[in-house]
Structures are given as C-alpha cells and as structure tokens.
Amino acid sequence: MKICYFNYLYDRFGISIGSTIKGIELMKALESCGHDVQLFWRREAEEPASGKPTTRDVLKRYLARFLHEPNQILRNLSDLKNEKKILKNQSPDLVISRLETYVMSSPFLASKMSIPLIVEADSPVSYELKNFDQSYWLFPNLVESMEMNVLKRADKVFCVSNVLKFYFVKRGVPEEKIHVISNGVDIQRFHLKISCDKIKKRYQLTNQNVIGFIGSFHYWHGVHHLIHLIQEILSSHSNVAFLLVGSGGPLKVQLESFMKEHHYEDRVILTGHVPHDEVPAYISAMDIVLAPYPSLDFFYYSPVKIYEYMAMGKAVVSSKIGQIAEVIENNQTGILCRPGDLQEMIEAVRGLLFNPSMRKRVGSEAHQYIKKNHTWKHKGQLLSELCKEAVEHY
Q: What is the pLDDT of residue 220?
C-alpha cells in the first residue's frame, strides 16, 4: 500500500536526533515489507540569531511567552493547505502522523478525505510540555484537549511502551486501539565484529576494563548515581576506566568538577558529542555498559541505547524500571538493579569485573535475544500488520 508519514519533530538533528533516527529506521523497515512509504518532515529548526540581540529580538522573546500557543494553533492553517496538496498528489491508502503538541492538520485531513489514520504517539506530548518546559503561558487544558482529539480521531495508535499505552488508556483512549511497538536496533550497524582498536588507542584504554555510558548528563539518566559509582569503582580497581559518550545536561559541570577534584581525568573519558554513525565503535570498546536510571514515577521511554548495547553483546547493568524490565531478563540478558539502589549497582558492576566469563555469557545471550526479537525489521513487520488492519477495518 501507499503510505504518507508526517513527522513534526523540531530540530531533527539536534535535540531530536534519537527520535529522528527512529522515524527513519522504522519507515525504512516498513518499506522493506513491500509498502511505498513517503516521508514528510514538516518542521525545521530556525537558525539561531547571530550578533548582538536587537530590541526586536528581545521583544519577540518576551511576547513568545504569551503568543507561542496561539501561533502554534494558527500554524495548522498553513499546514492544512500544504498537506492537502500533498495528500491529493500522493493519493495514499494510509496516513501515519506523529503526535505533536497543537498539531491537528494531517489527522483532520485524513478524516475529511476518508483516509485511514495511524497516530505514532512516541511520548505524552502535553505532559512533557507542562512538566519540562515552563517557557510559555498555556491556556488551561487546551493542549491536552487537542492531544486527545487527535488520539480519538485515529483508527489506530502505536506507542513505544506499555507504560505509555496505559497512560493514554487512563486518559480515555480505548485500549484496543493502542498497540505497543518499542524501539529497536539496526543489527547491520550494531553487531559483534566492530573493531574498537582506534577508540582504545585514541583514549589509551588498552589493557583496561572499560565501563561505558551513552547519553546526555541529565538527572533522568541517573548521572548523580554515576558519579558515586565511578568513585567507588575507581578507588578499589586500578585497571578500570570509564568511557562516557555524550554531551549536554546540567550535571556535566558537576561531573567535570568531580573528576578534577579526584584527579580522575585520565581514567574517566568524556568524549563529548559523537555522531551516531560512530557510536558502534565506542560501544565496542566497552566491557560493561550502564543505564543507571533513578526512580522515576513515570518512566515511559524505550531507550534505544539498551537495544544497541545488547545487540553488540555487552553486559548491561541497568535499573529495573519501565520497559527495560520487560526487555532484560535479570542475570540472563543483563543485570537489573532496584532504581536508586546505588550499592546494588556497584556490587553488580564489581561482580562482572571479577567474572569475565559471566560478562561474555550475559552479552552473548543479550545479542541473541535482540537479534531474534528487537531489530528494526521486527518493528517494521509489526507496523506493517497494524497498517493492514487499519485499512481493512476502515
């Protein structure tokens, strides 16, 4: 069938890079199932202003607090015009639209043009706006109402985790309408035979046990736990180094200060931003990999790095939280620890350091499990079945 995919991610190759990669990989997998898939990226980040801010720039920033919501709603008018042309030209059998705050254009057009609609609900967008961005004044309950209108208008909805599914169900979306298609991994790029020689040479990690972490240095990635874990492990293990891949986040300064205070600069490597194409070589250099998420009341994510770690046969030590606890079988395909229990995580890491054969076994079982269940090909097949169901029951 012919499918139009509308994605409204902002700053696709900046803050939204993970979701951008997911959209590309999943649509590529859907196309490999025999469908004609056309991707339409409907948003682009504005270039930052250069030079000294003008009075107009300052005024614009001030007014944005109050005008952001009206502007976003009005943007639907231009989207309606442009997307109507797209749909008339493409004549698709199905529309897949990514859920985004205030966006109603493609769901509205699909309904009016009698085209089956699937909504990709990767995150609780109104919840994120209200809890993670306090920049704008919002009309009470408006963004939630628009979100629910889109979800209820959809013929099918898919999201990345059971936690997120039941969040939407509690808010009124029929349970039978929502399907879970978690994130996955490209095993042609993340596999067992990737060389780590250049990375180990670059950072002088030869003959070291390397403990790795990928992600930004934010609270929800458990970086405050990571700092304590580093101190405990390095103070008692002389042949261990940490390789931390990522950038950004409010705890990076705290981490750097900790490293200088304890003179760990040569044993804790902060790589900064690494292009996604280069990430496999960094994971290959790691012996143990970490996902030390803190105890969060609403952990609705499907962390791509977990799938990438496991696909490359690495022994994962992770918090037992959300969907991660569904993917990793404790002591079989990884090691799970109670969220927030730092001592349990430290002991899990020490156990793997002292037992290389266990590291190898756990990593091997993780690789086999991902290969059989969580490649993007598997996710594309699930979405293909959902597409057929949506069209057949329209």
A: 67
Q: What is the pLDDT of residue 71?
A: 79
Q: What is the CATH number of domain 197-373?
A: 3.40.50.2000
**Can you give the pLDDT at residue 59?**
56
Find out whether 131 and 125 touch, Cβ atoms under 8 Å: no
* Residue segments in the chain with a per-residue pLDDT below the cut of 50: 46-50
Residue 2 is encoded by which pair of tokens?
């012919």
Across-strand partners of 159?
Answer: 180
What class is the 2-184+376-392 domain?
A: alpha beta
According to DSSP, the β-strands at 117-120 and 240-245 are unpaired
**Domain spans in the chain, listed from the N-terminal domain onward:** 2-184+376-392, 197-373
CB-CB contact of 345 with 170 (8 Å): no
Angle between helices 142-153 and 55-90 (to 10 degrees): 10
Predicted local confidence at residue 49, as pLDDT: 44
pTM comes to: 0.88
Rounded distance between C-alpha atoms, residue 308 and residue 103, angstroms: 31
Other beta carbons within 10 angstroms of residue 234's beta carbon come to: 17
Cα–Cα nearest to 382, from 183, 155, 164, 100: 183
Instruction: Residue 352: name the closest of 338, 366, 363, 367 by CA.
Output: 363
pLDDT tens for 109-140 read 999 999 999 999 999 988 888 887 677 767 77
CA-wise closest residue to 100 among 87, 86, 119: 119
CATH topology identical between 2-184+376-392 and 197-373: yes
